[in-house]
Design goal:
Helix content is 42%, strand content 16%. The chain is of the alpha/beta class and 456 residues long. The chain has a single domain (3-229, 340-455), classed as Glycosidases (TIM Barrel), CATH 3.20.20. Strand 13, helix 15 (380-398) and strand 14 form a beta-alpha-beta unit. Helix 7 runs parallel beside helix 9 and helix 14 (345-358) packs parallel to helix 15. Bound molecules: 4-nitrophenyl beta-D-glucopyranoside. 4-nitrophenyl beta-D-glucopyranoside binds next to loops.
């Protein structure tokens, strides 16, 4: 049966700067917290680094040509903040500006729409040293000033802006688990970092709206990630636990933007561990996204932990479990990707329906969805994954959810953060040594989806 998508549906592929660019100290670029984090022995699988990565910094034309050959309509990439501002603020590095100008111009010449993320985790190391990174008082102003530089230089051609990628991951994995840069381990810092991330997002949007949007005519929003949480049983307690888990995951960052404040259940449970927004901040944050950017990868069961011995004070996939009183689990029937993330397409549909109901049916762009499997070129599992998840998206659209675009993660096999190069999300294989790009079967399959505007 044909599953056609709405006309003008945005079909894209996605990457991020640190994961593909390499050129870590090329042409005046400053170090980022990921450059530094990767130097610490034991932090990254195999002590891999992004120093070279896919060497996209020197191969951008080839990568744009690859996307053109696949017929992909949009490309989501991120700007490396320390490539543009080596010290995070102050002097601009013209070589960095030139690089992104070439990328943007090549994309437009190839008929591919640029979708630009301003922050995909590679904070300038200078800001970590000087102002305590995302914990610093000044960071929202400093981020907004960096965003201003990007709007000024690129906004004549870039019409789709994403401020921050996955504040939840930055906060929980960077400041809670400590498995991502800057590697802090704490029960409280995630909520403080998260607070600054939300304010930084809103201030950048304010700059865009006041100084650029009327002239440049683009749109701007934030991308959050969320798994689906399915109640383990039909009990009221488990249903409430699943709802709570979603509020601590997605509500944490989407409620301020769509409702003006954190979810009540977070405020009640966290007390003064959760910073409060001032009335002025609330007013700036509410309504600060022109679209709902969503990254979605997997699903887990949620059950109420308040009665059980529970897992105690642990960070799970869902954050700090004791704050939520939620136990997470998976079904033995669910197939797993190489990340050990379960493949549950209906969870994607339910999450989209939850977003539509909670946030009054905003336009949604799925800015990442994908899976890690072994690197083989005949990647039938990846095709099955995309087929399943796109069918779920199609069903959600049929049920009234306003999904307007979908970006596969990822265009290239690349540096998968703490997993180094051991986890491969790409529809394109990168040959070891030569770094030659070789599209996998899923790349040609996706090209056909884009051509047909749907599944055959
Ligand atoms: C996202 N989790 O990261 C990122 O936006 C990408 O850069 C990354 O390559 C991709 O997903 C695959 O991992 C995530 O633990 C990292 O829930 C961790 C989690 C979720 C997303």
């Amino acid at each position: 049966m044909n599953k056609l998508f709405p006309p003008d549906f945005v079909w894209g592929s996605a990457t991020s700067a640190y994961q593909i660019e390499g050129g870590w100290n090329a042409d005046g670029k400053g170090p980022s917290i990921w450059d530094v984090f990767c130097m610490i022995p034991g932090k990254i699988h195999n002590n891999d680094t992004g120093n070279l990565a896919c060497d996209h910094y020197h191969r951008l034309e080839e990568d744009v040509a690859l996307m053109k050959s696949l017929g992909v309509k949009a490309y989501r990439f991120s700007i490396s903040w320390p490539r543009v501002l080596p010290a995070g603020r102050g002097a601009v590095n013209q070589s960095g500006i030139d690089f992104y100008n070439r990328l943007i111009d090549s994309l437009l010449a190839a008929g591919i729409e640029p979708w630009v993320t301003l922050y995909h985790w590679d904070l300038p190391a200078a800001l970590e040293f000087e102002i305590d990174g995302w914990l610093g008082e000044e960071i929202p102003d400093v981020f907004a000033a960096y965003a201003d530089v990007c709007f000024r230089h690129f906004g004549d051609r870039v019409k789709n802006w994403i401020t921050i990628n996955e504040a939840w991951v930055v906060a929980i994995l960077g400041y809670g688990h400590g498995v991502f840069a800057p590697g802090k381990v704490s029960k409280d810092l995630p909520y403080r970092a998260g607070h600054q991330l939300v304010k930084a997002h809103a201030q950048a949007v304010d700059v865009y709206r006041k100084k650029y949007q009327a002239v440049q005519g683009g749109k701007i929003g934030i991308t959050n990630n969320c798994d689906w949480r399915e109640p383990l049983t039909d009990s009221a307690a488990d249903r409430a636990a699943a709802e709570r888990a979603l509020e601590f995951f997605l509500g944490w960052f989407a409620d301020p933007v769509y409702k003006g404040d954190y979810p009540d259940c977070m405020k009640e449970r966290l007390g003064d561990r959760l910073p409060a927004f001032t009335p002025e901040e609330k007013a700036l944050i509410q309504g600060s996204s022109d679209f709902f950017g969503l990254n979605h990868y997997t699903t887990m069961y949620a059950s109420d932990a308040s009665q059980s011995a529970g897992a105690g004070s642990v960070y799970g996939n869902g954050g700090l479990s004791e704050d939520q009183d939620v136990d997470l689990s998976v079904s033995p029937d669910w197939a797993m990707t190489d990340m050990q993330w379960a493949i549950v397409p209906w969870g994607c549909r339910k999450l989209l329906e939850w977003i539509a109901a909670r946030y009054d049916n905003p336009p949604v762009y799925i800015t990442e969805n994908g899976c890690a499997f072994d690197g083989k070129l005949e990647d039938t599992e990846r095709i099955a994954f995309f087929d399943g998840y796109l069918s779920a998206v199609h069903e959600a659209i049929g049920n009234g959810v306003d999904v307007q675009g979908y970006f596969i993660w990822s265009l290239l096999d690349n540096f998968e953060w703490a997993s180094g190069y051991s986890k491969k999300f790409g529809i394109t294989h990168i040959e070891e040594g030569t770094l030659k790009r070789v599209p996998k079967a899923s790349a040609w399959w996706y090209a056909e989806v884009v051509r047909r505007n749907g599944l055959g």
